[in-house]
Amino acid sequence: MTPLPKLALHELHDGGGVPIVLIHAFPFDHRMWVPAAEALPETVRAVAVDLPGQGYSEFGSIPPRLDLVADAVYQTLQAVGIANAIVVGASMGGYVALGVAERHPGFVSGLGLVDTKSTADTAQARANRLRIAREMEMGQSLQPVLAMPGQLLGATSLKTRRHLLPTLDAWVHGQAPRGLAWALRMMAGRADRTHVLAQFGGPAAIVVGEEDQVTPLTDAEHMLAAAADGALTVVPGAGHLSALETPREVAAALALLHRRAVSRRRR
DSSP letters along 10-73, please? Predict the structure, then answer.
């Protein structure tokens, strides 16, 4: 059995009780969650994880499979004494959050899905991810993903929050081509996990930027329809990176999820 990598964890916000675990989008790392974490209520603890091959985490020798990534996240959190958590993911992080809920349902007290979707890639999207992964591996270059930040921000951010672009560019330049290629292959191979939302017994928060063109409102509504106990938040003036574009609004949705999850556990 291939050993799972120990992932890098980052304490972003002090607090007690059941923590919120934040999982980042592609092609970034835990830093994208810092503004939203800082906007959480002072009583809420938030930790963020770097997924394999990104930030401070290595992917070791494991194949690029989402189930193994979900297990690595769970194992890493268990190793530091986190017995249960509210698991929140943005975009790629949402795919992983669903994987954790599927494979370790007793661990997940609440589920947050931010600018993401529960369905698998279309054949065209899968082929495009694999093409980019090959280009990155062959050239050992970040060039194929350098334009992504401008494509992920919403129209409002491109007009009024252009200061985000240099930060996003720096974060992308800080990643390793092999790590990002590995992540692309992991995402391309993932299955549809809409059924996880129906089976998950805890509260789910579904958050989408009103201007998100990558995983738009229709994807969020699809997840809401499947969720047993879901709540939808549409964030005005935000695109696919709403946690960074409008961190206070996203933090408010996550704080509500935290209250719902804690209340459920006390019953």
Answer: EEEE--EEEEEEEEPPTT--GGGGHHHHHTS-TTEEEEEEPPTTSTT---TT--S-HHHHHHHH
The string of pLDDT tens digits covering residues 69-86 is: 999 999 999 999 999 999
DSSP per-residue letters across 81-149: T--SEEEEEETHHHHHHHHHHHH-GGGEEEEEEES--SSPPPHHHHHHHHHHHHHHHHHT-SGGGTTHH
Residue located via tokens 């980042």:
24
Residue 66 confidence (pLDDT) above 80: yes
How far apart CA 233 and CA 252 sit, in angstroms, is 10
Four-CA torsion 55, 59, 65, 66, nearest 10 degrees = -40
Domains of the chain in start order, with CATH, are: 9-120+191-266 (3.40.50.1820)
Percent of the chain with pLDDT over 90: 94
CB 207 within 8 A of CB 78: no
Under 8 Å between Cβ of 93 and 51: yes
Identity of the amino acid at 123: A
At 235 the three-state DSSP class reads: strand
Element (DSSP H or E) covering residue 199:
helix 194-199
Q: Residue 263's pLDDT is what?
A: 83
Contact assessment for residue 102 and residue 126, using Cβ atoms and an 8 Å cutoff: no
**Of 55, 26, 7, 56, nearest in space to 190 by CA:** 26
Q: How far apart are CA 174 and CA 214, in angstroms?
A: 23
Which amino acid type is present at position 128? N
Average pLDDT, the chain: 96
The answer to whether 205 and 231 are in contact (CB under 8 A) is yes
pTM of structure: 0.97
Mean pLDDT calculated for residue range 172-195: 98
